Amino acid sequence: MTEAVDWEPSDAQIAAMTVAQRRALIQRLERPAAELIHPVIAARIRRVRVSLMMSGSVALIPWIVFLGLTLPNRYVADHWSATWIGFDALLVLLMAMTAYFGWRRRMLLLLTGFATGVLLVCDAWFDIMTSEPHDLPVSLATAAFAELPLAAVLILGPLRIMRLVASRLWLLETGMRVWHLEFPF
């Protein structure tokens, strides 16, 4: 039988702790990762996902070479309007979801914000690459002054939020980059 403990550290005691002591305390208090997902299952899922991404990366190299050698420079596309309208509708949906999650202060903002930023980069790329010569200045200006700056905000914002959350949980060492942050399981 576990005995209830009424001890609660004071603000002064917490402030007096070193970074390592705070990190150790948080790790002791957090829910164990094994309670959330069995370590064997987590390892299996990770292996499968990493394998899929590695295989896909390798498989895309010959595909890119093949496309470079076989695709025509000019191509008339069916459903051109539906393609762009659908893409822009998806962009509007993700922007609206990002705005909603930001307004409601929801963590899903990280996913929708990042995805919206990536779609804006794709939008700029395809606008520039598919524009006729007389439309190119407008496509370049739109990319430079609207799509790419907004994409930077939408991609860097979630990274800053992730850094803030990791810092508050004492998961980042001083000077450590968010790219080096590991999953706790």
Written description of the protein model:
With 185 residues, this protein is mostly helical. The protein has 2 domains: 9-71, no CATH class; 79-185, no CATH class. Helix content is 71%, strand content 0%. The protein has 7 helices and no strands. It has helices spanning 11-16, 19-29, 33-36, 39-70, 80-103, 109-130, 136-168. Helix 5 (80-103) runs antiparallel to helix 6 (109-130) and helix 6 (109-130) runs antiparallel to helix 7 (136-168). The protein is elongated, with a radius of gyration of 24 Å. The two termini are 29 Å apart. The relative contact order is 0.08. The chain crosses the membrane at residues 50-69, 81-101, 108-126, 138-159. Keywords: Membrane, Transmembrane, Transmembrane helix.
Which outline best applies?
elongated
The overall strand count is 0
Proportion of residues in helical segments: over 70%
How many domains in all?
2
Biggest sheet features: none
Order of helices and strands: HHHHHHH
Radius of gyration equals 24 Å
Straight-line N-to-C gap: 29 Å
From the helix content, strand content and strand pairing, which structural class follows? mainly alpha
Total helical segments? 7
Give unreliable regions as ranges: none
Chain-averaged pLDDT: 89
Kindly estimate the percentage of residues that lie in beta strands according to DSSP: under 5%
Keywords: Membrane, Transmembrane, Transmembrane helix
